[in-house]
Amino acid sequence: MTDGPLIVQSDKTLLLEIDHDRAAECRKAIAPFAELERSPEHVHTYRLTPLGLWNARAAGHDAEQVVDTLLEFSRYAVPHSLLVDVAETMARYGRLRLEKHPTHGLTLVSNDRPVLEEVLRAKKVAGMLGNRIDDDTVAVHPSERGNLKQALLKLGWPAEDFAGYVDGEAHPIDLVQDEWQLRDYQRDAAESFWHGGSGVVVLPCGAGKTLVGAAAMAHARATTLILVTNTVSARQWKDELVRRTSLTEDEIGEYSGAVKEIRPVTIATYQVLTMKRKGVYPHLELLDARDWGLIIYDEVHLLPAPIFRMTADLQARRRIGLTATLVREDGREGDVFSLIGPKRYDAPWKDIESQGWIAPADCVEVRVTLPEGERLVYATAEPEERYRLASCTHRKIDVVKSLMARHAGQPTLVIGQYIEQLDELAEALGAPVIKGETSVKERQRLFEAFRSGEERTLVVSKVANFSIDLPDAEVAIQVSGSFGSRQEEAQRLGRLLRPGTASDDGQAKVARFYTVVSRDTVDADFAQNRQRFLAEQGYAYRIVDAEDVSTL
Amino acid sequence: MERMAGKGYRSLADQLRAWSDQQLSRLLLARPDLATPAPQDSGQLASRSATRASITRALDQLSRVELCVLDALVVAGQTTPAELVPMVHAQPSSVERALARLLETALAWESTGGLRALTGVAELLVGGPTAGASGLKPRSAEPLTVPEVESRLAEISPEARVLLEHVLDHGGEATTDSSRHTVSPADARTPAEELLSRRLLVPRGGGTVVLPGEVGLVLRGGRTTLEPVDELPEVPTSARDQSLVDKVAAGAAFEVVRRVELLLDHWGTVPPSVLRSGGLAVRDLKAAATLLQVDERTTALVVEVAHAAGLLAVGTGPDGDPAWLPTDELDRWVTRDAAERWEVLARAWLDSPRLPALVGQKDPAGKTWNALVPELTGVHQVETRRLTLDVVGSLPAGGVLATGTGVPGVVARVAWLRPRRPRTRSDQVLWALEEASVLGVTGLGGLASFARPLLAGEDAAPLLDPLLPAPVDHVLVQADLTAVAPGPLESTLARRLQVLADVESRGGATVYRFTPGSVRRALDLGWTAVEVHDFLGSVSRTPVPQPLTYLVDDTARTFGSVRVGHAEAFLRADDESALTEILHHPQARTLGLRRLAPTVLVSDTPIDVLLPRLRELGAAPVVEAPDGTVRVAGPDQLRARVPRERRPAGARVARETAGVAAVVTAVRAGDAAAASRPADAPSLTPSGSLAALREAVERGSSVVIGYVDNHGSRSDRVVDPLSVEGGRLTARDHRADDTRVFAVHRITSVRAVG
User: Fold this and answer.
1) Are B73 and B117 in contact (CB under 8 A)?
2) In this protein, which residues make up the domain named Helicase XPB/Ssl2 N-terminal (chain B) (predicted)?
C-alpha cells in the first residue's frame, strides 16, 4: 500500500485528493487518458471511458503507461479487472487503420485478421467497403470515410486515420502579434491540434478560443471554413480575425441568412447550413464551394445532428473543434470523437483562472418564497406550466432590484428564459432588453453601448447565451433558464469570466453570478441540476434566502 | 509396508487382516467410502473395496503414472515388482512410488502367486492412453515367451503385421467372420489366419479374437506404452513480483468482502424470495449485480460464497414467504476485521462443492441454472479446485501463470494428475482460477502469499491484514454536496453516513451524495437538524460547505409540515358547537374523539360501533360516502358462506376402503413369500454372502450357492464366481458349464466347496 493521492474505484472512477503533495504530478499523469468529471474543492473525480482511453492512444500513450500510472499513484490496490479492461480497451484502438493505398486509394488495413473479419461481417459497415484487396486490406469508398469511422467506433474497433489530409487551396494567413501575444496554452492547443491532424480543443469560456482558431489557421495557411452558432458570433469572429491576423475584411466572407459571400475565409452559421427546403439542404454546396484546407467548428458541443452527417463527408479536410465542454446533453460525444477527432487539448478552468486568464467567480443562489396566492396557483397548475409559473414570480423582481443596488455602477446582465418576464424586468429596471426579435443592428448597437459604459444593464434572453462578447460584464443575474441545462449554465457563467481590469481599489475583478430561484418548486430542482455542473467545476454556490440578500 | 514379505496372502481379506492399524487407517483415509458405514470385519472391508463403485472412486484419485502402473499390472496378470517396473515406460523410481500407492489403497495386493490387481480393475480401466489405459489385453494363462513371439512375428506376412498392429491400436480385440480359428501355420490363407495359427491372435468364442498381452508388449518394445508416462506437463510462467501479486489479490479480497457486506445489508431489508426450486430468481440476481456494479457471473459467486459461509440462508420474509435472508452469523462477521472476514469467505469457498459459474447457463434439460439451487453442486469441484490452487501454488517463486498459455498449462497438469476426471474438468479448472482471482486468493495469475496458509489450513488473516486499506474515521465534504471517504470507513461511521447520504461510488474509497431525500431519510429515523450538523462537523476534516448546511436546514424546515395519522372515522359538521357538544359529552369519552379542526373530529372507533353510540348520545348522524354524498342504508342481512370442502359421503367411504385393501394385499404377499422360504437354509446376512462371493472372485475358487430360480424352486449349484456387481453375480455354473448371471437377492446361502 503506497501513500498515493489517487484512489481507483472499481466503477472506473478515479478520485484525486487535491491537498496531497503529489496531486499536481498525478493530475498531469492521468490527464491524457482520464476524463475530468468533477473538480470540487477537495477531491477531483476522473473517469476512465473507452473514448478517453482511445484519445490517449491517439495521442501516443499506450496501455502500459496508463496501467503504470494508475499503479504508481494509487493509494490502494487497483482492481485487477479494471487493469485488464484498460489494456483490452486500449488494444482495440488502431487494430484497424485507414490508409492511402498508392493504387487502390482509401483502404482499411488491419494486422489482426479476426478483427477485420468481424468488422467485415458487421451489418453496420455493409456498403461502405469495396473489394477485398488482400487478406488484410479492404478498399473503402472514399465518400464513406467518416461514416465508416463512426460505424467502427460503434462496433468498438475505432480506426486510426492515417489517410492524411488534402492541403486545400493555399492562402497566406499570419498572426499579427503587435500589441498582444498568444498565451502559452493557446499556442500549445493550436500546436497539439496541428500535430494531431484533426481534433477538439477544450478551453473554458473566455479563455480565448477564437485565437486558438486563428493560430490554427496560421498553421494551415489555407482557405478556411468557420462554422459558428449564430450571426452575432459570426460578426465577432470576423472582427477578431481582422484585428489579430493578416486577413483583411475583403478576404473574409459571411454566409448566413442575410448575406451569402464565399471568400478565402468564410464564416457560416449552423443554422443556414442545416436549413432544409423541400427535403434538401440548399446551402450544402458551400462545403464544396472551395477546396477548403481547414474547417473550424465553434462550440462543438452544440453541433447539430445534420452537421455531423455533413462532416462525415469532409474527412479528408483538417478539422478543429472548439468548445468549453465536451459534455453534450444528447450524449453524442462518440460522434465528435469519430468525426471531428479526438480531444487534442484540455485545460481545467481553475488552472486557467489561477494563471489569471479568466476571472474568479462568486456564485450565489438566492431563494425566494412564492407568495401565498402564487403558491396556490402553482400547486394546482398543470405540470408543464409549473416551471414557467415558478420561474416568473414577481418576488424575483424585488430580489433583482436589491442585487442591482448592491452592485450599482457595475456592468450587469440580467438573463432569463421567458420573454414576458424579461419585458417586465426591463421595465422595472429601466434597462433595454435583447430578445429574439431584436434586429441584429439593434443588438450590435446595444452591445456597443454596453461596452462603452453607456448602458450599465442589459436584460437578455437566451439568444445571448452564445458567443456574444461583453468584456465588461461583471455581474450576471439569471432569473430563469431552459430547465436543467448544464450547458446553458456554463455558457452564462462564461459570459463573466473574461478577465477585467482591476477596479479602482486595485482589487482584481471578481465575477458575481446570481441565480434567483423559487423555493420548494421545480425551479429549485432544475437550478440544483444546473449548478451541479458548476460545483463540479469547482465553482461552489452559496445559498441565501431572499430576505438575507442584504447580509451578503 | 511389508513388500512381498514371505509368500503373500491367500486373499485380500487376509492381507488386510495382517496389516497394521496405521496401514489400515491410511487405506480408509485414501478411500473414505470404505469406512461408511463401518465394516464388520476385514472380510467385509475387502469385499467392499472390490465393488465397482468403490474401485471407480479409487481410480479417479490416481495420477496418470499410477494408472499406467496399474494397467501394466493388469496386463501382466500375476507378477513381481522386478518384472513390472521395466514394463512401464517411466523412471523406475516413479513406478515404484506408484506401485506403493496402489498397494496402500488396496487396488493391488500381494497374492501367493505374486502382485495382483483387484479383479474389477481391468474392466474399469478405460478412457484411452490419457487415462492410463494402454489398450493391451491381459497376458494369456500360458504366455508365449518373448523369443517365441519375436520369431513368430518374423514369420508373418507384412499384411498380417499391419493387421496385428491395427488390432493393437484399437483395443486389442477384433471379430473375424470367415476365418477359421483352428488352423495350422502352413494352411493359413488370410492374414488373420496367419495370426491365429501362430497364437498371435487368440480366439475367445463368439467370433471374437484377442491379442494377448505378451504379444502386445513385444510389439511395443517390452513396455505397455510407446510414450513415457511420467512426464509432468509444464505450466508456462512469466515473471511477476510477489508483492505485486499480493497487492492485486488483496485488492480483490477487499472488494469481495465489501460486496458481500453490501449485498447482505441490502437483502436484510429487501430480501429476495426463494424460488420453488430453492434458488434465487434471475431478476433478483440481476438487481444484485446492478447493486454491486459487477456482472452477473461475479454476483452469482458472491451470493454462493456468502451462502457457503453461512451468512445467507432461507428465512421468513416480511410477507411470511420464504426469503433469502442474512443469518445472525452476519452480525458477528461484520464486527470482525476485513482480513478475518475474508478468511471466512475464502475458506467457505475452498470447501464448497458449488458451481456458481454455471448460473445463467442451461442445464442438459435446457433449463437455466439459478443461483443457490440445491442441485448446483459438483462432486469433483472441491478436489479440482484444490488441485488447481496447488498447481498455481507450486509455480516457482516470482512466477505467475503466463498470459494465454498459463491456463491451458494448468488444465494439462491437472489432467495429468487426475486423468480419469470427467470431460467438464477443464471447465472446472477455469472456474477455479477465475473464482480464485475474484476472491483474491490469486492475483495476476499467481497465488497470493497470504493464501498459502489458507490452503494449509492455517490462519491467513494476519498476513492479509497489512495489505488491506486501513479504516479511516473522517470524510471530505465538498460543495457539490458529495462527501468522499478516502478509505474504508469505520463500520459504525459508515452505517450512520449511509443513512444521511446516498452512496454514489464504492471501492477503496466511498463517495456519498447528500440529497434532500437522503437527509429526509435521516430525519425520518429521528435525527434532528442539530444532530446532523454536529455529526457532519465531527466527521468532516474540512469545513462543512455552506450549501450542505443550507440543504440540511431547508429539509428540516419542510420536514413534518404535513402530518399523517390514523383514525377509523371522521365526524364533520358545519355547526362547530354541535361537534363541541359531542366531544364534551360525558359518555363520549370512550369513543376516542379528537378535534382536528373546528369543524372536524376524528374517532378511533369503527363506524359501525360509532354510529349507534352517537345515536345514543342524542346526535342524528348520517354516513357520508367518499364522494361526499349522504348514504342511507338499512341494517344488513347476515349470511354465512357455504363451506368449500363438502363431498358426498359415499366417495369418502370408497376411498378409505380401497386404501385398506391395498395394505392387506401387501401383507398377504409378504406372508406368502415367508412361507415359501425353506426352513433349513443357513441364514446368511446379505452382506455376509456378498463378502463370501467377492472373496471367491478374488481367489478364483468355487463355491456352492443356494439359489431360488425364476419358478421359485430352490437348488444348490457349484459355481466359480467371476464378478459381483449391481446386485448380480456373474459366475461359471458347473452344472450348465457356462457363464450364468444370478440375482444376488435370490442367493440364500454361500458355502465353500467340500
Assistant:
1) yes
2) 475-597
Average pLDDT, chain A: 83
Q: Domain B686-752, what fold? A: SH3 type barrels. (2.30.30)
| A42/B480 Cβ within 8 A | no
Q: With beta carbons under 8 A apart, name residues in chain B contacting A8.
A: 507-508
**In chain B, pLDDT over 70 holds for what percent of residues?**
91
**Is the previous residue joined to B37 through a cis bond, with omega within 30 degrees of 0?**
yes
Which residue carries 510407446 as its cell?
B226
CATH 1.10.10 assigned to domain B12-131? The reply is: yes
Collect contacts of A239-246 with beta carbons under 8 A, ≥24 apart: A240/A210, A240/A211, A240/A214, A241/A210, A241/A214, A241/A217, A241/A265, A244/A175, A244/A176, A244/A180, A244/A211, A244/A214, A245/A173, A245/A174, A245/A175, A245/A176, A245/A214, A245/A217, A245/A218, A246/A172, A246/A173, A246/A174, A246/A175, A246/A176
Nearest to A76 among B293, B469, B542 (CB): B469
Q: Among residues of chain A, what percentage have pLDDT more than 90?
A: 7
CB contact under 8 Å between A15 and B444, yes or no, is: no
Q: How many CB atoms lie under 10 A from the CB of residue A236?
A: 18
Q: Same structural domain for residues A407 and A273? A: no
- Give the Cα separation of B104 and B43 in Å (integer): 17
Whether residue B478 and residue A80 make contact (CB cut-off 8 A), yes or no, is: no
For the ranges A290-299, A465-474, A537-546, B6-15, the lowest mean pLDDT is seen at A465-474
- For residue range B143-170, list pLDDT tens digits in order: 888 888 888 888 888 888 888 888 888 8
The predicted structure's pLDDT at residue A269: 87
Q: What ipTM was estimated for this complex? A: 0.78
pLDDT in tens, B349-373: 999 999 999 898 888 888 889 999 9
The DSSP bridge partners found for residue A130 are none
B285 pLDDT tier (thresholds 50, 70, 90): very high
Same structural domain, A243 and A341:
yes
Domain annotation covers residue A144: yes
Q: Hey, what's the cell of A293?
A: 484546407
Question: Is residue A289, in this structure, part of any structural domain at all?
Answer: yes
Q: How many domains does chain A have?
A: 4
The whole-chain average pLDDT of chain B stands at 83
